[in-house]
Amino acid sequence: MSARPRFTLAQLSYFIAAAEAGNISVAAERVHASQSALSSAIQRLERELGCDLFIRHHARGVALTASGRQLVDMARALLSQATELERAGESLQQSLRGELHAGCFVTLAPFYLPPVLTRLRSRHPELTVEVTEADGAGLHDALRSGACEIALTYRLDIADDMAFEQVTRLTPYALVSQRHPCAGRSSASLRELARAPMVLLDIPGPRGFMLGMLRRAGATPPEFIRTTSFETMRGLVAAGDGFTILNQRPRTDAAEQGPVLSLEITDAVPLALGLLRVAGVRPNRRMRAFAAECHQVARTLTAPR
Question: What CATH number does the domain containing 73 carry?
Fold first, then answer.
C-alpha cells in the first residue's frame, strides 16, 4: 500500500497563491483566508515537504526558493488533476451519457426490459445500458460488488443494506390447462386450483412466495412439477391438466389464444415490484432515468385492458 501524502490540497492552493502574489497578505485576500491561516498552512507544508519554499523579506513580501520554483509547477499540476477529478465526479453523477449497469429479476426481464430499454434509447441516445439478469440473491451480490447500480425486482427477502422503491403491486393470477376443473371460469380460490397438479417456477424468491401463499390458504396440490423456465412452465401447463401461478400478464393476451387459460385468484396476495439499490448510495441521473422508465412501463403493463 502506497504512503498517503501528509499535505492537503488547501495547503497547495495557498502555496501557489503566495507564489503568484509574492506577498502573504495579498495572497490571503485572493483566497479569502486570514493572513495568519495562510502563513501557518504554508509553514506546515514546508515541514511536510522537508524544504523551504519561500525566502521571507520583512516588509518586502516573499520570493520562491530554488526548491519552491521547482515545486510550484508540480503543485499546479496536482491541483489541476484534483479539479479534473471533481468535474469527472460531478459528470458521473449528473450526466445522461455513458454506461448504466442495471439489473432485472430474471422472470421480469421478458416483460420489462424490451420497453424500458427502447424508451431509454429513444430519450437518451448517448446512454448505454448493460443489463444483469439474475434472481434476488444474484442481484443483491451484483449491487454490493458495484457490478450493478440499480435493479428491478420483487420485494422478496430485501436485505437491510438495500433500499427498495416500490414501483407497483402485482396481483398473482392462475394459468390453467383446458382440462383443469376450473377451466372456463373467470376466477377460483387457491384451494380449488390446488385440486390439480401445480407447475412451479422453481426460482428462489418467487418459489417461496407462491408456496407461502398456498400454505396460508391451506391449499396443497397433489403434485408439484418444477421448472426454472417460463416457457417450459407454460408448456407443461398446456400439456397436462394442472395450473401455475404468475405475477405478470402478457399484453398480447397470448394466454387466451393458446391451449391455456387465465383466471383470477380470489384469495391471491399482492406482491410489490420495485427498484433496488444499495442503501446510502445516492442515485445518479442515469439511475433516475432508468427508474422513471420502469415506473412508466409498469403503468402501461398493469393498466386495465
Answer: 1.10.10.10
Judgement on whether residues 150 and 14 belong to the same structural domain of the protein: no
Q: Which of 246, 191, 198, 187 is nearest to 216 (CA)?
A: 191
Do 76 and 103 reside in the same domain of the chain? no
Domain count, the chain: 3
Q: Which of 43, 77, 92 is the last residue of a domain?
A: 92
Domain range for 33 is 9-92
273 by DSSP, 3-state: which?
strand
Residues, the chain, total?
A: 305
Q: What is the pTM of this model?
A: 0.74
Neighbouring-strand partners of residue 261: 176
User: Cβ neighbours of residue 263 under 8 Å, at least 6 residues apart?
Assistant: 173, 174, 176, 182, 185, 186, 187, 188
Distance CA 17, CA 39 (A): 11
* pLDDT tens readout for residues 120-132: 999 999 999 999 9
| CA 119 – CA 151 distance, rounded (Å) | 17
The CATH number of the domain holding residue 152 is 3.40.190.10
Closest CA to 161 of 140, 139, 142: 140
Q: Which tens digits make up the pLDDT trace of 231-270?
A: 899 999 999 889 999 988 765 544 444 689 999 999 999 9
Report the distance separating Cα 147 and Cα 10, nearest Å.
34
SS3 220: coil
Q: Examine the domain organization and report whether 16 and 54 are in the same domain.
A: yes
| 222-246 residues labelled b (16+ CB within 10 A) or e (exposed) | eeebebeebeebbbbbbebebbbbb
Helix extents (H) in the chain: 9-21, 24-30, 35-49, 66-94, 109-123, 136-145, 190-193, 206-217, 230-239, 254-257, 285-302
How far is residue 237's CA from residue 245's CA, in Å, rounded to a whole number? 10
Burial class (CB in 10 A: 0-12, 13-18, 19+), 184: exposed
